[in-house]
Amino acid sequence: MARRLDLAMLLVLTFSTGMVDAIGYLGFDKVFTGNMTGNVVILGMGLAGAEDTPVVRPALALVFFMVGAALGGRILGRIGEAWHARTTTIYAGVAIGCAGLTVYVALVPDPEVGLAGTIFTSVLSALMGAQAAAARRMKLADVTTVVVTSTIVGLASDSRLAGGDSVRWIRRALAVALILVGAVAGAATLMINQWIGIAFVSVAIAVVTVIGHLGARKQTLAEAAEASAHA
Q1: Is residue 94 within 8 Å of 131, Cβ to Cβ?
Q2: Whether this model's pTM surpasses 0.90
Q3: Please, is 228 exposed, middle or buried when counting C-beta atoms within 10 Å of its C-beta (0-12, 13-18, 19+)?
Q4: If you ran DSSP here, which 8-state letter would residue 33 be given?
Q5: Nearest in space to 60 (alpha carbons), one of 128, 146, 123
Q6: 78-133 residue pLDDT tens
Q7: Surface-to-core class of residue 223, CB atoms within 10 Å of its CB (0-12 exposed, 13-18 middle, 19+ buried)
């Protein structure tokens, strides 16, 4: 039951990644803040001199994503797959960081321009790196929250059409669908204002944090009660 809850939480985070990537790419000069594969490709094209292709922001996003992931790994330490207090710390920090970026985007004039936009994409990338590190530590196959390429490969190559047994096809399909829907939602919020999408992401991650933490606490209390009953 606990792992099902963890899966649900990671799927929500996958949706939020679709939102932040749409916001970064469409609203902040073609920068992915969650999907680093996209940034590496954009950076490569930019370095080759492709017209209207950024270099600085994708490069910084990649660096800050790695910094966030490294910091997340340091905080998580050697915890296991189950939701831990340190998991709560990471996700709560990401939610608070996104809330801060919401205020930043709402108050700064033309937040997508110049240094202001670079600060936004770099900080958001660091937050997504920390989130990805926490999601990776939970070790739920096919749900990384930041990329679905391998998920799509698994969905197709393990399908009955390919002679497989369609293992975990539901979670795989949901991961792909949710990052797609998240991208649609992120693009839609840009039509109103940049801060709205980031605010929604902040709330979504905060809800995941609270539910995940309470679910883990309930599981711990249940295990303690069971142990006492058998003592």
Answers
A1: yes
A2: yes
A3: exposed
A4: S
A5: 123
A6: 888 888 889 999 999 999 999 999 999 999 999 999 999 999 999 999 999 999 99
A7: exposed
